[in-house]
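pinging the channel bc i need a second pair of eyes. not urgent but kinda urgent?? the chain im working w is below, pasted from the shared doc
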Amino acid sequence: MNDTLRKVMLPLMGVTMVAALLSSSALAAGLQKVSVRLAFTAGGIDAPIFVALGKGYFKQAGLDVDVVDGNGSTGTIQAVENGSFNIGIAGLGALAQAEATSRFDNITAVMGLVQKDPSAIITLEGSGIDKPKDLEGRRFATDAGNLQDGMIKAFAAANGIDMDKVKIIITENDQQALLKHDADFINEWANPDGDHVAKYAAISPPMLFADYGVNILGSSVIVRKDWLSAHEGAVKAFLAAYAKGHDDVQKDPAAALKFFMEYRPDGDPKGIASEIKEMEKYRHTARTEGKPFGYVDPEDLKQTISLLETYSGMPKGYVKPSTVYTDKYLPAEGE
C-alpha cells in the first residue's frame, strides 16, 4: 500500500471498525438480560436450554440468557424469591410446599418440564418383587429424609401395602445396600438412579409410583409474579425458545448432546446421553399426553397438592392450582 493510498484507506478502515463495534454493542444492548438458575447441576433433562443457547434461539427472541447450576429446588426457589435470578427451574411440588410453609406466594410456575414422577421402587433381577404387595416382608433401604417426605407412605396407602410388615433399614447409601444384598428394594428415581444400579447388577423394570396412583409434578419453569408482570414479553420469548430447543432435542439427541457438552464440558457424555434419551418419557402425564409441551393439567396439580397435604405435612387449604401455575405464557402451537 503506497503512502497516498494508506492515507485514504486507514481512516476509512478505522471508521468501518468503529461502526462495526458500535453496531455490535447496540445489538447486545438491545437484548434483555435474563438470569436462570437450574434446580441441580445440569443434566440431560436440561438439554433444551443448551440447544436454545447454542442455536441462538434466545438471542433471536431478544434475550441474553445466562444459565447457572443449582443445588436443589428449594435453593432455586429461594434465589428467585429474593431476586437473585429472574427465572428458575424447580419442582412444582417443591414450589407448592414453599408457598404453604414459607408463604412464598409471589412465585408461579409457567411451564411444566417433568410431569411424570420418576420415583420408583428399584429391585435386583430375580428378587421376586413383581407388584406392590410383594414389598411386604422385605427389607427397604432408605435414608431418613426419604421417609419424611411421605411419598413411600402414599405409595403404600394407594396399593394396600402394610408398612408395618416392611423392615426399614436407615442408611446413607441405599444403592450400595441393595447391591450388597443387605436390602431387597430401594426408592429412588428410575432414571438416572436405576441406571446407576444397573451398571453393577441387573435390575427388574422399576416400579414407577406414577403408574400406581402416586404422582408429584416435578421440574418446572418458575418466575416471580412481579417480575413476570413487568416482563411478560421476555417470559413468553423464553418459553417459546425453550420449547423450540426441546423440539430439536427430540429430533436429534446426538446434536443436543454436543450443545450440552459445549456449555458443560465437565459433564459425563455417556451419562448425559442416557439422560437425554430416558428423561423424555417423564415429560407428560396421561392427562397431558398430546398437549403442547409444558402444559400442566389442573387435575394433576390438584393431586400433587393433595398428596403433599396428606403425606408430607403441608398445611391444608393454602395452596390452589391457580396460585402456583399459569399456562397463560406458553407458546401457541406452531409458534
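so The first strand starts at residue 32 and ends at 37. and The radius of gyration is 24 Å. — does that match what u expected or am i reading it wrong
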